[in-house]
Amino acid sequence: MRPFQYQRPSDASAAVATVAGTDGAMFLGGGTNLADLMKLGAAAPTLLVDVTGLPLDRIEPAAGGGLRIGSGVRNSDLAADGRVREEFPVLAQALLAGASGQLRNLATVGGNLLQRTRCLYFQDVTKPCNKRQPGTGCPARSGDHRSLAILGSSDHCVATHPSDMAVALAALGAVVHIEGPGGTRALDVTELYRLPGDEPHRDTVLRRGDLITAVEVPALGFAANSAYRKVRDRASFAFGVVSAAAALDVADGRVRDVRLALGAVAPMPWRARRAEQALRGQPATAESFRRAAETELEAARPLRDNGFKVTLARNLVVRVLSDLAGRHL
Ligand SMILES: Cc1cc2nc3c(=O)[nH]c(=O)nc-3n(C[C@H](O)[C@H](O)[C@H](O)COP(=O)(O)OP(=O)(O)OC[C@H]3O[C@@H](n4cnc5c(N)ncnc54)[C@H](O)[C@@H]3O)c2cc1C
Ligand code: SF4
Fold it and tell me: How far is the CA of 33 from the centre of ligand 2 (A)?
C-alpha cells in the first residue's frame, strides 16, 4: 500500500474544501471498500479525509414525510431502525442481504452507495481494465463475465454495481443530498450513477469534493408492502447474481401502483420503469408480472456466459411480486 495522509475534520464544509483542494484526496467512510482497494493497489489516495466524525449519523423524519438518513449512518443501524423495518421493509431486507454483520457495523450509507464494482479485473492490477485505467481495454468481455451486466453496459465496460441497499433506494425513489465546492444539490439516486459509455472510469456524476450528506426516502404509502430478494451463489456473505426490490399496491385484484428495481444486472441500480408502466392497471397475476418483466428485459444484451441472468431476473421479478400480491406460485 502506498503511504497516505489522514485527516478527521469536524465539519462538512472543511471536509469538502480539503478533498476539493487536494490532488488525490478521498473521503473515507467505514473503509470496508476503499481500504481493500488500497491494499490491492486498485486505489491510491494521497490523503484520506475521514467523514465518520461528522454529525451525519442520524435518521430523522423528513420534512415532507418519509425519512432523512445521514450519510454516516452505519448499515446495521439503518437495517435495525424500527421506522425503516415497518415503513420500508425492502430497505431493511436489502441491507441485511449484504455483506456480513461485522462489515455492516462499519459500512456507511455514503460509502455503500459509492462502493466500486467487484469485477475481478478491476481489482487485479496485473490486468488491464478501462474502469481502473482508462484506455487499457476490457478483458471481462471475452473473459470471466458470468456475474456481470446484461443491461446498460457498453463495449468499454460490462461491470455491475454491487450495492444491495442502492437497489432498494432506487425502487423507493430516494433522493441523494450532496454538498460540494459549489454548494448543495439533490439527485434521484438513479441520477447519481452514470452508464459507462466510453468513460467507464466515471461511476457517478459526482465531482471532486462532492460529499454525500444524506439520503431522503420519500413517504410511500404502499412501501410497507415491499420486499427484497437476492439470488447469490452462496447463502450468505456473497454479492448478488441478480436481485429485485419491489413495492406493490393491489386493489380489487389489479395493480394500482408498483415500484421495481433490479440489482446486479447493470452498472447502476436499475429502476424498472418500463415494467412498472406495463403493470399499472393490470391484473395482479403471475402472468402480468412475467409479461412486465419481459418488457423490461427486452433491452438486455447478455454476453457469452451470462444469458442465464435474463431468465433469472424475469423469474425473480415474478416471484417477488407474486409474494407481495399474496399469490404464491
Ligand atoms: C467481503 C465483503 C462482502 C460484501 N458483500 C456485500 C454485499 O453482499 N452487498 C453489498 O451491497 N455490499 C457488500 N459489500 C460491500 C460493502 O457494503 C461496502 O464495502 C460498504 O457498504 C462501503 O461502505 P464504507 O462506509 O465502508 O465505504 P468506504 O470504503 O469508506 O468508501 C467507499 C467509497 O465511498 C466514498 N465515500 C464514503 N463516504 C462518502 C460520502 N459521505 N460522500 C462521498 N463519498 C464517500 C469513498 O471515498 C470511497 O470511494 C461487501 C464487502 C466485503 C468486503
Ligand atoms: S467490465 Fe469494466 S471493470 Fe471489468 S474489466 Fe471491463 S472495464 Fe474493467
Answer: 17
